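Why do we bother with holo predictions? Because pocket geometry can differ from the apo form. Keep that in mind while you read this record for pantoate.
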Amino acid sequence: MIKAATIADVKKYVRECKKSGKSIGLVPTMGFLHEGHGSLIKRARKENDIVIVSDFVNPTQFGPNEDLEAYPRDFDADCRLCESLGADLIFHPTPEEMYGKSNYSKVHVDKLTAGLCGAVRPVHFDGVCSVVTKLFNISEADRAYFGQKDAQQLAVVSRMVADLNYNIEIIGCPIIREEDGLAKSSRNTYLNEEQRLAAPVLHRALAKAEEQARAGEKDAKKLCAQITEEIEKEPLAKIDYVEAVDWEELQHTDVIEGKTLFAIAVYIGKVRLIDNFITE
Ligand code: PAF
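The structure, written out:
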């Protein structure tokens, strides 16, 4: 597996791959890889000749009071995982390499970024869309793999690609969970023992609602109220939002009509966790 730190090195490798007609799958990550990322790499491995994993804690998607400095990092462990799953190249640039001395351009997706996490993280999705655009251009990937855990991100990136005619297919992959249901996330490492025991309440609440939705319940407002009630039973949990939105435009809905995203963000202590399900 190649370890590349510069854009030029990745581009050189990509040129060679393209010359021999190889397809490229990109797995964009911020590192500290877990089985959730592993599932994306495995899927990319199956569907492409070449797999590129980017491993970059992108500063532009963190707000001023967020966890940029504290965000966990372990590049050696990331390399071991990527290699064991058959990735061909891991791209691990510095912020200076990615953004140069100055950067005056950004990609903004309207409407879909206004609610849910976008409401409390105002710079987040511009940072995500801009860095993902750079990664798409650098890797010239045919496909890029995103986890459904960050459902708003998946919807926003898919919309950006459709609106701006990017030559890349966005593949959404299922949420990977711990045995007790907690969605795998690099941020789970912030939880202390007591908080970790409380954290599965997110999945517990969603799972009950999902079961009802599958059984034909169409009242999204009622399901959100039930999710809220279940989470409020956990003393360490403080709800940021519990929302039902249509999957196309991420706008609030009280009824399930077509694909509907039930998304939640909950603080367990100071740790903000997100989770969701999408109806068919
Ligand atoms: O989901 C993430 O880890 C990040 O938002 C991404 C897509 C790698 C962009 O920095």
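The two ends are 38 Å apart (CA to CA).
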